[in-house]
Specification:
This protein is an all-alpha fold and 134 residues long. The chain is 78% helix and 0% strand. Helix 3 packs across helix 4, helix 3 packs antiparallel against helix 6 and helix 4 crosses helix 5.
């Protein structure tokens, strides 16, 4: 349904925005709505990809706002997304990619606490974002 997906999108945006408690709350809300850890990790990976695409387009000459629109950022989230895009850089995003892949793999391991793995990933990203000033 729409609600769990919205909660996962909120969790990803909150993680990359450095909002630890909000990210954790959104992930828990999605879990209560029936979403499992792999979907949460996928949402984080999608958000990472959107940030990476935006920064790549901007690096190649596009305006940041134009790049965000080309990356599929919804107008209601544009302001927060642009704030994040001004802080994150491609090198930092490249460091997160292996963590996302490892979390995805771990979530798909039989008997793994997938919702905790997704929470840990979101909190790691949020912590990194906070250290960068978000």
């Amino acid at each position: 349904g729409v609600e769990p997906e919205a909660s996962l999108a909120d969790a990803a945006a909150d993680a990359f925005g450095g909002r630890l408690m909000e990210a954790q709350a959104a992930l828990r809300r999605a879990a209560q709505e029936g979403e499992a850890g792999p979907a949460a990790v996928r949402a984080i990976g999608t958000y990472l990809g959107r940030l990476r695409r935006t920064l790549t387009l901007a690096k190649n000459g596009a305006g940041l706002q134009e790049a965000a629109k080309a990356s599929g950022v919804f107008w209601k989230q544009e302001r927060e997304f642009l704030r994040q895009a001004r802080t994150w850089n491609l090198e930092e995003l490249d460091k997160i990619q292996p963590e996302v892949l490892a979390a995805d793999r771990a979530c798909k391991t039989s008997g793994s606490p997938d919702h905790l793995i997704a929470e840990r990933l979101a909190l790691q990203i949020a912590g990194r974002a906070r250290r960068m000033g978000l």
